[in-house]
Write a structure and sequence with these properties.
Order of helices and strands: HHHHHHHHHHHHHHHHHHH
Structural class: mainly alpha
Number of domains: 2
Oligomer: single chain
Strand content: under 5%
Length: about 475
């Protein structure tokens, strides 16, 4: 059930009406109804994996209470490790088991040993990487004393399975969402309108930008051997825009949907393509994952390695970003993708500018020349690593690089549907202009138009909606569903 589908629109309209007008007077009933709705939403994909979601919720809820009740440090730690092992074990089995078996077989075959071991026919449950990290952060925070264990299983199960963020995040923290679930919620008209506005912008990014980009980039990556380098370069650029518009579009729709239900979930993007260095990019890109790994992986590692100075910091960064790569999927391409981004940090660490934040000049319509050069440089660094991210194998990625860096870079690009490419570029320019103007807000449209005459403001919204209906590309599954 995609956010941009008719089935989801009908589902959410029913949920919205019952949530506010039937169960609105009782928080407990609202939460039970939301939990049932979330389970129905998940079952719409494959009901068989609902039992896995409930099982992991039940085990982590029980372990969280045991961690909170125990007065013995060793016992607390035992329950914590048990919970982490179970959560990561389930994730490993479904997401990484075949990857490690295939890598093991490949390694031995290089030395002439043919092992009679076979991979399993395993289906990856949707959202497992997201709700697993949600569960682990809950257990760690309870162990650290940052939060108290959830005393209501309905609230906790809903925290794990809340349908707007269940499939592709954001990765919410229990300390943020559960207190909201415990309080009475009253519908706020202004918040509702703002939520609809955010959904509209996310819908535009997904259907008009990402899906049209996909119709261009998929043939380029599938047939790059037969295309001029100029076409490949445009394909790589469009894929970079595609993955941003697809994922941030999902996040906008998830956040907007949650706001219509009176709940605030984690912001996941902060205009990352306006970042002036790679560290700033990752503070703005997939924020919930970056902050999760910073808190639970990088910070402990940097403390452990602090005696080694900058070398220890480099090692912590490389491990952290390699894990970011592995989180995305069971493929060596993702490992290399994360490792390269870690390597991008090395010059910042050596120069001592890792934590220096570069703010764009406020109130200026155009960036300064210095800002533009840094923004463009960061974008290019990111763009060329997305070649590896998009490729099926590392060999394919390097073959694509070889095709890219050739004399045909100066030839005219070739596309089957030139008109689609033209209007897609026009929409991308529109995207960048709107996001640049609205870069100081929580999302692009949050502050835009508030001072405009209502007729102008609503005309802009309706025009954006018309673009969605007229120029939406063919339905494409959200990219991050595969993770």
């Amino acid at each position: 059930m995609l956010f941009n589908s008719l089935s989801f629109a009908l589902f959410f309209i029913i949920v919205f009406i019952l949530y506010w007008f039937v169960f609105g007077r009782n928080v407990k009933l609202q939460n039970i109804f939301l939990l049932i709705s979330s389970y129905f939403f998940y079952s719409f994909w494959d009901w068989r994996f609902l039992s896995l979601l409930i099982f992991t919720s039940l085990v982590s809820f029980a372990l969280g209470n045991q961690i909170g009740k125990s007065g013995n440090i060793k016992t607390k730690r035992t329950f914590l490790y048990f919970g982490i092992i179970i959560s990561l074990g389930v994730l490993f089995y479904f997401k990484y088991f075949n990857f490690f078996v295939a890598s093991f077989i490949s390694l031995f075959s290089r030395f002439g040993f043919n092992l009679d071991i076979h991979t399993l026919n395993i289906i990856l449950p949707l959202g497992i990487s997201f709700y697993t990290f949600r569960i682990i952060s809950y257990l760690i925070d309870v162990h650290r004393g940052k939060i108290t264990p959830a005393n209501d299983w309905v609230n906790y199960f809903l925290f794990v399975a809340f349908f707007p963020s269940l499939i592709s995040g954001p990765i919410d923290k229990a300390g943020m969402l559960i207190p909201q679930l415990e309080k009475k919620r009253v519908f706020n008209g202004d918040e509702g309108v703002d939520g609809l506005r955010q959904i509209l912008w996310g819908l535009f990014k997904k259907t008009v930008i990402a899906d049209n980009c996909a119709s261009i980039t998929n043939p380029v990556f599938d047939n790059f051997h037969h295309l001029p380098a100029s076409t490949i370069l445009i394909g790589i650029f469009l894929y970079t825009i595609q993955i941003y518009a697809d994922f941030s579009g999902y996040s906008d729709m998830a956040i907007g949907t949650a706001r219509l239900l009176g709940l605030n979930i984690t912001r996941n993007f902060d205009f990352p393509f306006f970042a002036q260095n790679i560290a700033e990019f990752w503070r703005k890109w997939h924020i919930s994952l970056t902050s999760w790994l910073t808190e639970y992986v990088f910070t402990p590692l940097s403390i452990s390695f602090r005696d080694y100075g900058k070398a220890g910091l480099v090692l912590a960064i490389l491990i952290n970003f390699t894990l970011i790569g592995i989180w995305h999927g069971a493929n060596w391409t993702f490992v290399l993708f994360g490792f390269l981004h870690g390597c991008y940090y090395v010059p910042l660490i050596i120069s001592g500018s890792l934590n220096k934040r570069k703010k764009l000049t406020k109130g200026e319509f155009f960036p300064s020349l210095s800002e533009f050069i840094k923004i463009a440089g960061t974008f290019l660094l990111v763009m060329f690593t997305f070649v590896i991210f998009r490729s099926d194998t590392i060999g394919q990625a390097f073959a694509l690089y070889r095709s890219l860096f050739s004399r045909s870079i100066l030839s005219s690009p070739v596309f089957d549907a030139a008109n689609v490419v033209e209007h897609t570029f026009i929409f991308i320019v529109f995207l960048f202009i709107i996001e640049w103007i609205g870069r100081d807000g929580q999302y692009a449209l949050s502050d835009i138009g508030k001072k405009w005459h209502p007729a102008v403001r609503w005309s802009f919204y309706y025009a954006t909606l018309i673009l969605v209906f007229l120029f939406a590309g063919s339905d494409q599954q959200f990219i991050y569903f595969q993770f």
